[in-house]
């Protein structure tokens, strides 16, 4: 299934609060939360000027799978699913079954989303990343199953605390 077909499949089947996984060919994933109307909320590139955009473009040419991560600044954004920057060969999935927690009720997820939208945060692969954000919205607990050597489905208390302070 090509990228556009995957996007259409997600839009046709996803519900608000579903975890959307952008599975990259190198074995890690970018995560977001489905927000309805074909949109996802996720850790995205922070606001930047022309010079920084050119620099990021150069980085992505050399490191196509992680150029965004190398600069370290993110902004929680709502974007159309089809416009999220992913490498060739990425697969988009609804991945609600990768974590063992019970989802929060929709009004609580919406409140977290509303309070975190447009916040700028430093990106840290081990301590504050896109999967931490997405699972916090859905479960109220920041979890990342991609970190080597970390117990799967274990709440990352520091990340949870960071998000909790922003929504309190």
TrEMBL record:
The keyword Hydrolase applies. Residues 20-146 form the LRAT domain. Belongs to the H-rev107 family. Signal peptide: none annotated. Gene3D superfamilies: endopeptidase domain like (from Nostoc punctiforme). One of its GO terms (biological process) is N-acylphosphatidylethanolamine metabolic process. Keywords: Hydrolase, Lipid metabolism, Transferase. It holds the Pfam family LRAT. This is LRAT domain-containing protein. GO terms for cellular component: cytoplasm. One of its GO terms (molecular function) is phospholipase A2 activity.
């Amino acid at each position: 299934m090509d990228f556009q077909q995957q996007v259409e499949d997600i839009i046709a089947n996803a519900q608000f609060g579903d975890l959307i996984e952008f599975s990259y060919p190198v074995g890690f994933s970018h995560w977001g939360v489905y927000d309805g109307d074909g949109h996802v909320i996720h850790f995205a590139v922070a606001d930047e000027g022309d010079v920084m955009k050119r620099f990021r473009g150069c980085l992505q040419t050399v490191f196509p799978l992680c150029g965004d991560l190398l600069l370290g600044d993110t902004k929680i954004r709502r974007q159309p699913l089809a416009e999220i920057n992913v490498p060739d060969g990425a697969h988009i999935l609804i991945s609600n079954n990768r974590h063992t927690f019970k989802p929060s009720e929709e009004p609580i997820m919406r409140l977290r989303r509303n309070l975190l939208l447009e916040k700028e945060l430093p990106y840290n692969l081990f301590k504050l990343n896109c999967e931490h954000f997405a699972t916090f919205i859905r479960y109220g607990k920041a979890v990342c199953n991609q970190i080597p050597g970390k117990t799967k489905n274990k709440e990352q208390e520091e990340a949870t605390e960071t998000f909790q302070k922003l929504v309190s």
